[in-house]
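2 proteins. here.
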Amino acid sequence: MMEELAKVVEKFAQFELMLEPDAAKLLCKYTQEELELIASLFQNKNVLIVTKTLVEKVMGEVEKSVDEEHGGEEDEEEIEDQSIRKKDVINVVYSMNNLKSTGSYEGFLSYFKSRYSKLVSLISDRISPRPISSLRKIGTSDDVWIAGLVSDKRTTRSGHVIIELEDESGVMPVLIPKNSFDDVNEILPDEMIGVRGHLNGEKRLFIATDVIFPDIPEKRYQKRLTEQNGGYVVLTSDTHVGSIHFLEDAWNRFVRWLNCDVGDAKTKRMARNVSCILVCGDLVDGIGIYPKQETELSIDNIFEQYKALAEYIEDIPAHIKIVMCPGNHDIVRQAEPQPPLSENIQKFFDDRVIFVGNPSLIDVNGTRILMYHGRSLNDLIPTLGLSYERPAEAMCRMLIKRHLAPMYGSTVPIAPEPEDHLVIEEIPDVLHTGHVHVVDYMNYKGVKLINSGAWQSQTEYQKMKNLKPTPAKVPVLDTSSLKIAMLNFK
């Protein structure tokens, strides 16, 4: 008994809490893991000395709330799970809060210098590229690496591909022989690549023998999984409140699940341990986003749309944090990266809502989730010959190219910030996008790629484009294992 008491006192001391002897005796029945969670409950109450009376009161309240939720059912596993709810830690690692684009010539120059320097440092982890200006000093038989941004790409009549590769020292035309690389069609304008090869006889053309992308390393994530602390995160996007196609009934079923009013024992246990919801853009339907949108609006005032969204959010259990980034339908600038919603919109929501920019990196109990609304999918999918039914395949290319929007000047407007904030410098555990309204997920070198669908049924504009959404399907991420449960509320 003395040994058990000592362990209890020691555990609470780690949380700078003192225990009365009788209080310690009451807590001896709990495991060390449970004690840590219980101690965090008292720490949150700003308690200095934990008394027997306080233990009985706090633990009694928790157990009573569990009994009421279960309607008196005696499910010990469920009660234990609820009574020791872990304190979740949610941090915004970075967000696009201080954007400084001026649109000047100097701004564009600074942007592309930043893009180049960031990406060349990533690809230089794998190769040692020579400056293009130094190639005039080498022989035609010398085998070397160069790296740079693709400023132009064209195909010759004989089927060879010629690209213009540019670094800080100069430009070099590179010939990629026909049928020499499977990935040649994957090369996009404005992205960083590394090329191995040699000069031709006149030293005016570089003949490629190998091509690589910045990509992510093979070995990193399996180690991180042992460091996770557990808990569930709901990933969703594209709520489009204000549209006549907003699926209110499905949303209400989703909220009832979060409140443990529906679902079996397994999904209820999951719901009780949801720590936060990450909403990845297009929070409302907006105004004037696509042709004849006004005929499909149930709320034609954008401020009223956000007020309605705030009311829907209020029904979510109070302990769940909600992180929201904007998308192209929201009332922020269209050019990426995008800042968080302004304070005159934020005031409609309660304090547990965290507003971030697009993109943003969120840390939930040690699991790092990169949120990006995903507008560049409209560039990547058609250019690379991919399918809107499998957006995760295009997300995979973002990781390979280490950039969320590698093509500059295409359908996605990108602001010439002094720094390129769309480079994927830190490799996340999860890449979360939305925008295309199709649920999809896959694993790439240990990174979970999740496109989280929508809460809007097919619009007339989508019908015209032959886009078929899969709404009201919600990916739920277990941060301890990075496993995904897919729940359907339609």
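next one coming up
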Amino acid sequence: MSDSRPRPAVGLVAARAVRQKLRAVASLGTFWPAVARGGRLLARGRVREFARKLFNEAATVRAAGEAPVREGPPLVLAGHALRPGGYDHVVLAVLDGLLSAGVNVVRDPLAVLNLDLIPLDRRPGEHPRPGGLPRLAACPPHLLSRFRPDRRTAAFTMWETDTLPPAAVRALNRCGLVVVPSRWGAECFRANGVAVPIEVVPLGYDPDIFRRTERESEGVCTFGTAGALDAGGLRKNVPRVADLFRRAFPAEADVRLRVKVTPSSPMVETHGDPRIEVVRRSLPPDELAGWYRSLTVFVNGSFGEGFGLHLLEAMACGVPLISTAFGGVGSLFDERVGYAVPYRLVEARNAVYAGRWADPDDGAVMAALRRVYADREEAGRLGALAAERAAGFTWAATARGLADALARHGFLPAGMAGPAGVV
């Protein structure tokens, strides 16, 4: 049967592609860098490349009109998904999970999606008047106001310190529901004045990709750490982990540190140490899982995590953590499945964050590094326990929990609701 649905005209496709590009660079705070890059391309006469980058959504905009027609209760999804990792990854996982749960997910007009990341059969629908439909906004609380929240909006969000920005609290209180991934987050939001209903729904991982495999004992003890260092560099503390590694192992040849950062991150200083390997690119999920499995232990030096997706994925691959249990991390990690290190609460010094977060104890981190180096069998046992713990956190469970919470609060039909989890 032929598809009789109208296709957008070429001019409309081009106009929408330009709008999406402007929204994308605005949402990432990269407007002026994008202008500079475009100017350089034009100055060098690379007009075709400039046009391709400017209209790089045009082809996928056309494809959006070919998304499957779906039955089921409609729900608008607001959230940007432009690149792997961070909230973008959460948006994509929530989209896939809700579709699998039978929800007719519709794209919010303010949301910017890189449709190259979404298979055609998993793309959200388009609705001529989405404003009257219930909506789920997946974004950081300090950016929620960009989606103009109201009582028909449920916010799926998290924070990394004990203090929310006052403007974020006001935006959250305009919503009908707030969903966070940890009980610590729920208590933090309440203490900061969020008065609307709050539900706890943990994030997850894909068990078909991130899974433990049996490994032969290696002669080299391999530590790993990772993070985006452009916006969250201070918070992630990746350079500090590299420094502590070098201090813990000043001369040992049978150790290495593998560092993975995003392409837009600044270079991590290795001080010429050949034992430190830096990957500065986005890895496809299968390759990322292999990177985790190459590690003896994952070292998390972060000041704070609203949940900790990197940590969960590492645990699912049978890799124990060296980490504090502060914030959302405590919902999935403790000393029974890894090496918990003490910390002290310090004032956050960052353009985004205020309040307090956790400063890991340097001596304890180095002691844990040396402990792993001295007893790799213990690390293997803890890794197996970490994988068992991680099995309770999957994206399928996240989707079920979200559907339940949304149904309990009237965003989806009541028949989809499960047991109450409101805080």
